[in-house]
Amino acid sequence: MDYLWIDKDGGINNVGVLFNFNPVGNVYTKLIDLDAINGANPYGSLLQAGNGLLYGLTPSGGVNGAGVLFSFNPASNNFIKLFDFDGTNGANPFASLIDAGNGLLYGTTRSGGVYGEGVLFSFNTAGNIYTKILDFDGINGSVPTGSLSQASDSLLYEQHFRWIK
Description:
Blueprint: E1 3-7, E2 17-22, E3 27-33, E4 47-48, E5 54-58, E6 68-73, E7 78-84, E8 98-99, E9 104-108, E10 119-124, E11 129-135, E12 149-150, E13 156-157
């Protein structure tokens, strides 16, 4: 069984790579060099959704430099940038996506949105549709960097705090 990872640095563009590792034979294979257009410097983990594709986020790169949401097909090694963050719809996602089991992926960005404090969003893998759900405003939270978790009550949870300089 091969394991897939994403690395935030390195590669020919020094902004990260997607790779797999087979622990049986200790075989490492670099699959994709990330770049400024397709996403750069990922921090979160890859998520394998129910459709078999892997999904991930990068906090930088993309058309607007504010990060991207992408998919990777491990069967065909096909990487597809699905969504460019632009600030108004969120920017700079640092956490991982979660598959909530309702056919949607959920995630957060640590900046952007109406108040610049980040957003909560969903992504429908069936139609590749991004939906901003909530703008963080400081009162309801701000600058989320942790990944969401789903509890037995089917609700999504996340805790975060804001660094004060």
